[in-house]
Design goal:
Helix content: 40-55%
Order of helices and strands: HHHHHHEEEEEEEEHEEHHHH
Strand order of the largest sheet: 1-4-5-8
Number of strands: 10
Structural class: alpha+beta
Strand content: 15-25%
Length: 380
């Protein structure tokens, strides 16, 4: 064990994920980058391996694990060099389906959760809009009750898994008060719901991202998820799970970038010696590694705080700080590692170039650094 928070079972999970990546992901994911999506078959294989419902009820195919175990999974998954694959999975496991797990009725969970944990039903969450991202209370998509239905009107933007998901959890305004927002379950094919367009990104190329359009989209009244007008608080609560997962992704990218760069500089020769023989190179890598090791301990501490049920205000502050720290750190680490690869680090198809592209969003998505620091500062 290399971490005071980890158990033997955690290490077994890490090894299981590592074997899955080596067998089912790394040999094929370059094609997924070109295709712009992750095949459903590999997601079903993850479900069959018990990796898509770690924190969910065993009644619905889950493992009833705690937040720390889920963090181990997210970090292990992020040893892949394909960020698009990683985020496809983490949106499903840590950002979208938790809304069903936390707020879904017994009937809703019985209907949808077995497919979610098995990888047959892939999920997405629709919160961000053209004019509302981190400011959730500013969203404009609305829902009005019409007899036995709700009618949704508006649009969502930058929705990961938006093109190929089967099930969407959508935030919509249901009252005039600033926080009067509710969550809804919307199935693909619902009348009035369309994928407006597939969006092209700089990185995360194997992850599909979409604009969603709701043109008087009618869904059954039973598809209200949780209490009416209380969805804002559900979103805020799940942000902590999402931000820990993204922080784990950042740390995974850091450790992978450092590992491959150490191998490279020990082999690459210039001016009569290896790059590792250059004092400036090895000292820079040592400092970056020190920062990553420190951030990784903070990551696990935040996971432990959630598992132990510590004061929620403290959890939000620490997780916000963690997200800001790791989002900036991964960009510092990956860019330095790319620099030490020289011209090869700028070539498409190399792992370090891919990590460099994919890392940039981690200081933006799930809460930009500036928003996270303000969330932390407000809690002093």
């Amino acid at each position: 064990m290399d971490n005071i928070y980890l158990s033997h079972e955690h290490e077994q999970l890490r090894e299981q994920v590592s074997r899955f990546l080596a067998r089912e992901v790394e040999p094929f994911a370059e094609q997924w980058e070109r295709d712009g999506c992750v095949p459903r078959e590999v997601l079903r294989k993850m479900g069959e391996a018990g990796l898509l419902g770690l924190m969910y009820s065993s009644q619905h195919g889950g493992a009833e694990a705690d937040a720390l175990t889920n963090l181990v999974f997210a970090e292990a998954l992020s040893q892949s060099t394909y960020g698009g694959f990683i985020i496809t999975v983490l949106v499903h496991t840590d950002m979208a389906s938790p809304h069903l797990h936390h707020a879904g009725s017994a009937a809703q969970q019985a209907k949808y959760m077995p497919g979610v944990t098995a990888g047959r039903t892939i999920t997405a969450v629709g919160i961000t809009e053209p004019g509302a991202g981190s400011d959730v209370a500013g969203l404009k998509t609305s829902a009005r009750r019409d007899g036995d239905h709700w009618v949704l009107s508006g649009s969502k933007l930058f929705i990961t898994n938006g093109v190929h998901a089967d099930l969407y959890f959508i935030a919509a305004r249901t009252g005039t008060a600033r926080h009067a927002i509710s969550m809804f379950i919307v199935e693909k094919g619902a009348p009035g719901f369309t994928v407006g367009r597939s969006l092209e990104k700089t990185g995360w190329l194997s992850s599909d991202t979409a604009e969603l359009v709701f043109d008087d989209c009618r869904i059954p009244a039973a598809n209200l998820l949780g209490e009416q007008d209380k969805g804002f608080y559900s979103v805020m609560k799940n942000f902590q799970t999402e931000r820990i997962a993204l922080s784990a992704m950042a740390i995974g990218h850091c450790t992978q970038a450092l590992k491959m760069t150490l191998e490279y500089v020990r082999d690459r020769r210039a001016f009569g010696a290896t790059l590792f023989d250059k004092q400036v190179v090895r000292q820079r890598l040592a400092m970056l590694d020190a920062k990553v090791r420190a951030a990784r301990q903070y990551l696990y501490h935040c996971g432990w705080l959630v598992t132990q049920g510590h004061d929620w205000n403290r959890v939000v502050q620490d997780v916000s700080m963690l997200k800001a720290l790791t989002g900036e750190l991964v960009n510092e680490v990956v860019q330095a590692c790319q620099q030490f690869h020289g011209g090869m680090g700028y070539m498409r198809g190399t792992a370090i170039e891919r990590l460099w592209r994919d890392a940039r969003i981690l200081a933006i998505g799930g809460g930009a650094t500036e928003v996270m620091l303000d969330e932390a500062a407000k809690r002093y």
